[in-house]
């Protein structure tokens, strides 16, 4: 439910990030104060996906959610269809994923992941749960047993928007044989050993192509 | 630099990040991640790759009215009824990292360990998917019969350690066994507690192999 006007002009603030610039422009919150739809749409167009997620998480902003749905739902449908869902099942599952997005957006931290990374992890976990009826074991970042970070803190990583666009550009430059394997690994629900045997590519070749692809993509993520 | 010295490797981490590993195998990887900051970082990169791949998928338009239907559902399910964050597991063994704790009821000592061979007991865990996943407890200096793997065997050490021709494995270290590896690990003098997932069968290759194949059959 949108909390109308409450957040108007408020500076973005989350625990522990004093010093960060406001992530959500005040004008976005002004939308809740009764702006008309066309004006809202143009203001949203100028807002990043990360800002939209933050607005949904903090203020249950429906306009922001609608914009996120418009961007991600057709891509999520495409993702689920590649995993073998028919159109109807894919649309139902997209709604389930977007419902989780609505409920969990308050946990999204734009310092740690881009919106598309976060959406991918939600969609992946949901499809493992729904299509395979399996849980998705994950480490708990708050687990006291978690081994402390040696040296610089990798868990405090920053995945900036610039990293994200560099990553997407680098994906386009990968040799076809590497890019194809990477897509199979993410979109076909098959571990690399199965990809190797089904496509008759030796296991060592599959591993080295994936490693080469990731070497290049990591360089794109790191080099600023 | 602290942290484990044996890692799953890029291909297994990609399987994990893409969601292709079945639950039992993913549990072993997630347990390694609890010990290993550099693999946590690697998985964060791989999640970002998943995000970028999702972003560049050709959009497939939804039937009109999907968003309205979802908003109506959100209204019906009243916002006050947000699901609570998952409760911490009631009975935990403080020696086990989080992803594993959820698969056990109560401390390790109270579980029904199954005899596998002298000095070696196993505890099968209930996890979905095609892998069998179990905790293995070895007394000091126990040698596991020589074997190879038709599928994939993922093992992470929780306490103590073991050695084979590929090196010494201590807490957090992960061993990936596939058809290219034929080994006969021996536990360290202090013994070893580890978590192992096996997809496909182990195949024993030593002289007593046939007999042990039956003992270890999953």
Automatic annotation (TrEMBL), chain B:
Pfam families per the UniProt record, alphabetical: Cupin_7
InterPro entries the record matches: Anti-sigma_ChrR, Anti_sigma_zinc_sf, ChrR-like_cupin_dom, RmlC-like_jellyroll, RmlC_Cupin_sf
Residues of the ChrR-like cupin domain: 111-197
Region (Disordered): 79-101
Protein known as: Anti-sigma factor
Lineage summary: Bacteria, Pseudomonadati, Pseudomonadota, Alphaproteobacteria, Rhodospirillales
């Amino acid at each position: 439910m949108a909390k109308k006007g409450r957040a108007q002009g408020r500076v973005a603030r989350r625990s522990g990030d004093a010093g960060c610039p406001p992530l959500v422009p005040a004008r976005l919150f002004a939308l809740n104060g009764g702006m008309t739809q066309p004006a809202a749409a143009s203001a949203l167009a100028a807002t990043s996906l990360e800002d939209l997620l933050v607005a949904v998480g903090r203020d249950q902003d429906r306009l922001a959610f609608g914009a996120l749905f418009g961007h991600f739902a057709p891509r999520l449908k495409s993702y689920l269809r590649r995993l073998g869902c028919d159109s109807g099942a894919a649309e139902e599952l997209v709604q389930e994923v977007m419902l989780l997005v609505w409920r969990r957006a308050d946990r999204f931290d734009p310092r740690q992941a881009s919106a598309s990374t976060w959406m991918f992890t939600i969609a992946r976990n949901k499809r493992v749960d729904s299509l395979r009826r399996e849980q998705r074991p994950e480490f708990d970042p708050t687990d006291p047993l978690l081994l402390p970070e040696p040296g610089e803190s990798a868990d405090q990583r920053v995945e900036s928007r610039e990293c994200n666009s560099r990553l997407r550009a680098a994906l386009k430059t990968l040799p076809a044989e590497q890019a194809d394997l990477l897509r199979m690994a993410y979109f076909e629900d098959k571990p690399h050993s199965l990809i190797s045997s089904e496509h008759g590519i030796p296991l060592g070749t599959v591993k080295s192509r994936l490693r080469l692809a990731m070497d290049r993509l990591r360089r794109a993520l790191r080099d600023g | 630099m602290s942290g484990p010295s044996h890692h799953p490797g890029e291909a297994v981490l990609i399987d994990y990040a893409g969601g292709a590993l079945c639950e039992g195998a993913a549990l072993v990887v997630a347990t390694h991640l609890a010990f290993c900051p550099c693999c946590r970082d690697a998985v964060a990169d791989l999640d970002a790759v998943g995000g970028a791949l999702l972003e560049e998928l050709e959009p497939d338009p939804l039937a009109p009215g999907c968003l309205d239907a979802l908003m109506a559902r959100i209204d019906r399910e009243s916002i006050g009824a947000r699901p609570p964050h998952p409760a911490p597991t009631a009975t935990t063994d403080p020696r086990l990292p989080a992803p594993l704790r959820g698969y056990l009821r109560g401390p390790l000592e109270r579980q029904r360990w199954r005899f596998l061979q002298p000095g070696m007991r196993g505890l099968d865990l209930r996890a979905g998917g095609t892998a069998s996943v179990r905790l293995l407890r070895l007394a000091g200096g126990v040698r596991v019969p020589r074997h190879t793997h038709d599928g994939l065997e993922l093992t992470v050490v929780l306490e103590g350690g073991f050695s084979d021709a590929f090196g010494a494995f201590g807490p957090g270290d992960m061993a990936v066994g596939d058809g290219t590896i034929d080994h006969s690990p021996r536990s360290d003098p202090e013994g070893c507690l580890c978590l192992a997932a096996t997809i496909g069968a182990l195949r024993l290759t030593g002289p007593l192999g046939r007999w042990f194949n039956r003992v270890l059959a999953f």
